[in-house]
Amino acid sequence: MDVKFQNVSLAYDNVNNILNNISFTIPEGQLTCLLGPSGCGKSTTLNLISGLLSPTDGQIFFGDQNVTKKDALARKVGMVFQNYALYPHMTVLDNICFPMKMAKVKKADRLKRGRELAALVHVETELSKKPSELSGGQQQRVAIARALAKSPSILLLDEPLSNLDARLRVEMREEIRRIQKETGVTTVFVTHDQEEAIHIADQIMVLNEGKIQQFTTPNRLYDQPNNLFVAKFIGSPIINTIPFANVRDDFKTVVPNKVFSDGTTIAIRAESIVPATDPHDHLTLLPLSGTQVQSNRFGRETSLSLNYGGQTIVADGFREQDLGRNGKPLQFALRPQGVFVFNQSGERVWPETITANVSPIKPTEVIHA
Amino acid sequence: MTKKRISQALLIIILTLGAITMLVPFIWMLSTALKTAPETVKVPPTWIPKHMQWQNFVTAWHAAPFLTYFINSLIVTTVTTIGQLFTTILAAFAFSRLNFYGKNFLFALFLSTMMVPGEMLIIPNFVTLSKFSLINTYGALIIPWLASFFAVFTLRQTFNAIPNELYYAAKLDGSSDWHFLWTMMVPLSKSAITAIGILEVIGSWNSFMWPLIVTNTAKVRTLPVGLNAFTSDAGTQFQLLMAASTFVILPMIIVYLCLQKYIIAGISKSGLKG
């Protein structure tokens, strides 16, 4: 079922706007990420979907049905909490079957379905254990199975991976993706980790200060950030930003006059900075020059710090043989993709529209933090 | 290594001294219970009686209707404890999870009642009960003790430690507040509830002052009041009093020994002493 928010606001004590008049539609059968820094309103949005919170203003629809006034139970959502919230005194099977027990499903039926769900999430050998006897990943799996037990209209996951270690996080990320595809349930996933969001989501809603910054596919978010916040939030290493005034003469022939005068910040992705000898298309006709500050190699990655326009920027498109000496001038070029100009209020003013034939940079090239 | 051993030894000595201090009254009670009347008041006192007077226990048991007292104590303690646990669980849940108008004010008000000494309540409670014609009934022994804010406070702390997500998860799964309380909160707070229960059992069983005041016939009297039978104008028969005391506290010692781990867990968890 798709989820539609119409002009939804939430304020505590009528003063603090947690969410400010937001509208969006989460498409059916897909995995949507709510992404943003802590306090941006993403968990609040999730709780509004679940019905644990009620909006101060606006309407919420599940499909055609207005659920604004309905409570959490009536909305039939399944939810996985950050700390899993498994019932500590019940076995794994009882945990999974609990929602069906509450819904008065016959014992034989619910045990059968409970076992099926356990098999789906691969915990079928742990059925008689208590949650405390399980590893973090297994607890997570049980929590997902329990959330799926009532055949929810929507599955909500609130930062489900943040209590897991790095390796397990990647594994569970794939698992959640698989389970979502297998069941086809509309899923909303809250995270503050942009890399996690990019890997798992069909589309991502970036939130900040209670407002939607951008809502689109992961690649489009990376390739065409609407504003400086999104550009900085998505991608690792963080996008380089330079005051446009310091370097705009280098781009005089590239950007229109209006951008030349209005632009305040230029943002450049680390992988878009390449050696001047790079054979591919370059953004500017002439190579740019900066000063090499430092270079480091980390396994397959080379990280180069450059001084350009009075800022130290990071480039990872260099190979060892392209590097000069620290403290010496270094010529470099920019690829046409991954360079954006933003105005005073942070909106992207250039490129205005990004045409589809610009080969998108795959997010898999993003350096894993 | 030696330093560690010395501190270990010191620790054991201190603990042993503490344990002996705690045990002395009990040993004295047992010792006196087995003495003859003259020996109980002998100076210097003897720790081990010259001739063990085992028949003291039989004499003491027959000196008063102890069977009735025992049954009364059992009824009063059971009903008080179950009733108090029930009100405690409901009140603790309300203060811990529900939002209602005046909750904080009510909580502060209840908390302030803990500062009123129990003795202050004797007269108003007595007057109230006598107006309801409840003096000399089980009601007088039970009703004033059906709620204890100390217990509510302790349990509320335990309930507060249960994560909110569990409550939300259960709500989403279709559990009502009532159902959540009894199938989640209560089983999860088993040790705290057991501790509160045991403390109440001990308190109720040993209670002396209140039953003495509100009862005036053997029919409803409890064991501790029964011990008064050995004190008269002519003096106290210490050996019989101590023999009776021994069988009065014996059930409590058994309860304590069986359940001590819960008492300790409950007290250390709540961060309060009983």
TrEMBL record, chain A:
GO terms for molecular function: ABC-type ferric iron transporter activity; ATP binding; ATP hydrolysis activity. InterPro entries: AAA+_ATPase, ABC_transporter-like_ATP-bd, ABC_transporter-like_CS, ABC_transpr_FbpC, ABC_transpr_MalK/UgpC-like, Mo/tungstate-bd_C_term_dom, P-loop_NTPase. Residues 3-234 form the ABC transporter domain. CDD domains: ABC_Carb_Solutes_like. GO terms for cellular component: ATP-binding cassette (ABC) transporter complex, substrate-binding subunit-containing. It holds the Pfam family ABC_tran. The keyword DNA damage does not apply. The keyword Transport applies. Keywords: ATP-binding, Cell membrane, Membrane, Nucleotide-binding, Transport. PANTHER family: MALTODEXTRIN IMPORT ATP-BINDING PROTEIN MSMX, OSMOPROTECTIVE COMPOUNDS UPTAKE ATP-BINDING PROTEIN GGTA. This is ATP-binding cassette domain-containing protein. It comes from Furfurilactobacillus milii.
UniProtKB/TrEMBL annotation, chain B:
This is ABC-type maltose transport system, permease component. The chain crosses the membrane at residues 9-30, 69-93, 105-126, 138-159, 238-259. Residues 70-259 form the ABC transmembrane type-1 domain. Keywords: Cell membrane, Membrane, Transmembrane, Transmembrane helix, Transport. GO terms for biological process: transmembrane transport. InterPro entries: MetI-like, MetI-like_sf. Its main location: membrane. GO terms for cellular component: plasma membrane. It is a multi-pass membrane protein. Belongs to the binding-protein-dependent transport system permease family. It is found in: Cell membrane. It holds the Pfam family BPD_transp_1. The lineage of its organism: Bacteria, Bacillati, Bacillota, Bacilli, Lactobacillales.
